[in-house]
Amino acid sequence: MEDVEKVKPYISHLNKQLNSLKVDLDKLTSKSLDEQLLSLNDERAKLELTNTYAYALSSLMFSYMKVLNVKDLSPIKAELDRVKSYMNKAKAIDGKDQKEQRLQQEEQERAKRVINNALDGRQTGPAISKHNFQGKHTRFEDSTEDQDKQKIDVKEISQKVAESKRKKSRIEKQKVNKKRTK
Q: What is its main location (predicted)?
């Protein structure tokens, strides 16, 4: 008796699940598959319907065979795997469509930013006005100290360059002399 009490909650849960399955199956089987396919205009909806039918039938067959304690379920498992692969391919197609839509949306946003940046985005008045034709001028003050310092720096740099060239030529002559003596 104790074993029966342990199993009763599982049986009641199974009955609830079967009742919800019955409602879903009634929706699928209210019309024939051909009638349902003819009533749909969208190819994606037709694909979804055929995948749902195939998966439901294969799953029910698998469950029925399990209840009958059939040992070899490999053909049904293979069919379930095939249907799952079709469903995954359909999801991949949807993912590509969503990705393309997202890319188009990002491209439109980029184009808006480029246009706004090109127009400076802050123009509230007319495009041709006195304000747009006024230039910005920056005045630099000349200081004689800076010019003198720059002249000295240029002289120092040119002296260092000349000195390094002389050293380089001496080193090259020494290398040539060493090669001749060998």
A: nucleus
- At 143 the pLDDT is 60
- How far is Cα 116 from Cα 121, in angstroms, rounded to an integer? 5
Buried-state track 64-100, b at ≥16 Cβ within 10 A, e below 16? eeeeeeeeeeeebeebbeebeeebeeeeeeeeeeeee
Distance of alpha carbon 92 from its chain centroid, rounded? 13
Give residue 75's pLDDT: 92
Domain map (residue ranges) of the chain: 40-118, 149-182
Structure letter (DSSP) for residue 119 = T
Range list of H helices, 30-73: 33-39, 43-67
pLDDT tens by residue, 118-171: 776 565 666 676 766 677 766 666 666 666 666 667 778 888 888 988 888 888
Report CA-CA distances (Å) from 45 to 40, 52, 123, 165: 7, 10, 49, 81
Q: Is 32 helix (H, G, I), strand (E, B) or coil?
A: coil
Q: How far apart are the C-alpha atoms of 115 and 119, rounded to whole Å?
A: 6
